[in-house]
Amino acid sequence: MSLFILDKDLLPEYSLLDSGNGKRLEKFGQFILSRPDPQALWKLHLPESEWKKASATFKEGGNSQDRWFKGSVPQKWLMRYKDITFYCKLTPFKHTGVFPEQAIHWDWMERLITARVKSGNKPQILNLFAYTGIASLVATKAGARVTHVDASRPAIGWAKENQSASQLDLQGIRWILDDCLKFIHREFKRGVKYDGIILDPPSFGHGPNGERWEFETHFPKLMDACKNLLSAKPLFLIVNAYAISASHLMLENVLKDVFSGFGGGIEAGELVLKEETNHRLLSTGIFARWSREA
User: Fold this and answer.
1) Which of 25, 27, 24 is nearest to 14 (CA)?
2) 38-80, pLDDT tens digit by residue?
3) What is the pLDDT of residues 160-185, one digit of tens each?
4) Strands (E), the chain
5) Burial class (CB in 10 A: 0-12, 13-18, 19+), 153
6) Which structural domains are found in the chain, ordered by start?
7) Is 38 exposed, middle or buried (0-12, 13-18, 19+ CB in 10 A)?
8) Secondary structure of residue 263 in the 3-state scheme
């Protein structure tokens, strides 16, 4: 099994301080957050006194009773990845709009895009289920033209806030509020091609007009459609998955189908965080990625 562990140097403003008893203790910028994690079934390492230092704690009460209990945490605050600046917020879904483990991908694709730009080509990148858009910002900063697609108007608004915070060219990203499957089918009909594709499909979801998304049903169709959008010399494809009943082998096998005949290579595994104190590992999700240079 391949474990891809976040290097602290990639995202120094984030730390996994402790985990266990069904929760994790993390530092996002200057704030310490405690939130549930159903995979953390082991014992805590730090004493309870350290957990009480949390600036905000997410409590699960069932349905609408889930909520953050916060002290001095503002509505939003800034974090940084290299030259990219973005906002964290406490959402009703227990996350902050930042998935630290994905910095592993940001660094990887940044290097690929930079190399392509230096060769004289400006790659076209498609970011699907793009949410708060940190990957879109990284790709834009590296010199790519980015199409950012999400079905949530508030998420796109948040991503635009991040773009502004990073002081990136407002013309560098094309913003699309749409169902991802519908959008890529239209792009295929228009003959549009992309050099790189980033996908973060949820386990369940809905489009802006109530379109239903179920990972097991729609993911194979999504990948078939994405294959039709690849340019003659594609650069990369990344797919992440969270909270699904499958291993990274499923993602790897799907990518093998998609990239049969393209050459290059595929990496797949788990995205992993390492505790700052005792270096215990916490898996957060699975991924597979292809690149021509692999």
Assistant:
1) 27
2) 999 999 999 999 999 999 999 987 666 679 998 889 999 999 9
3) 999 999 999 878 899 999 999 999 99
4) 3-5, 14-20, 23-28, 31-36, 56-59, 67-70, 77-81, 84-88, 124-128, 145-150, 173-177, 196-199, 204-206, 212-214, 236-241, 265-274, 281-291
5) exposed
6) 3-88 (2.60.40.1180), 100-291 (3.40.50.150)
7) exposed
8) coil
